[in-house]
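User: ATP-binding cassette domain-containing protein, Arthrobacter gengyunqii:
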Amino acid sequence: MLENDALIRVENLRKTYRQGSRRSPQAEFVAVDDVSFHISKGETWGLIGESGSGKSTIGRMLLSLVAPTSGTVLFDGNDLNVLDARYVRKMRSRMQMVFQDSGSAFNPRRPVGEQIAFGLRLYDICAPRECRKQVVELLERVGLDESHYSRYAHEFSGGQKQRLGIARALATRPEFIVLDEPTAALDVSVQAQVLNLLKDLQAEFGLTMMLITHNLSLVEFMCDRAAVLNHGNLIEEGPVDTMFSSPQSEITRSLLDAVLEPEAA
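Assistant: Predicted structure for ATP-binding cassette domain-containing protein:
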């Protein structure tokens, strides 16, 4: 993937937090430390790391859900850190996230169809009377149907909730989607179904995707390029085939030694 085709460009990204109370000395915790990378249009880029490595923090900074302490996030050439907040809000329709547990991201008191339609109305994507039709089309595209529109999140299985999360992410017609451990809570057979669905949707809609995971099998199945994050530091990056066949760091080698056979094929 060519760097000049980058949809996302991250330069010297850093995120720190203050620890301790007002009455005690505060220590600085570095969650992300001087991270730089790019994600080309149309590719799936994987970010691999153990729990607490900072990978989800990076994903949220890319979507302006968390403000970086320093560094630059460019989306399609626009520096999100210096844009007016109202403009960033408009641009956010072009960037969406699928969470590890999409069910918890839905309001339990409202039908899921209405919540998916909210994004359509917020960004004036369709007239109010057309929203239900478009939501039903999205539900059908992710393997659900019109009868699911009026149901509530607790009525769905884990795999169905992830499909709902994908439908909601697609509602604003985004160009870029962050997948934050999207199959971690699912059994193997359902994982494969969700991953194959994501691959099909990427081809259909020309999506650029970032996959955040600790599972190298998913990276091998889904990603074109990937990077390894350790304690907030990016220690290795490259094409997945090259990284897996000739890892350059000891941490990557140890992750590969522990990996299971690919779960999705």
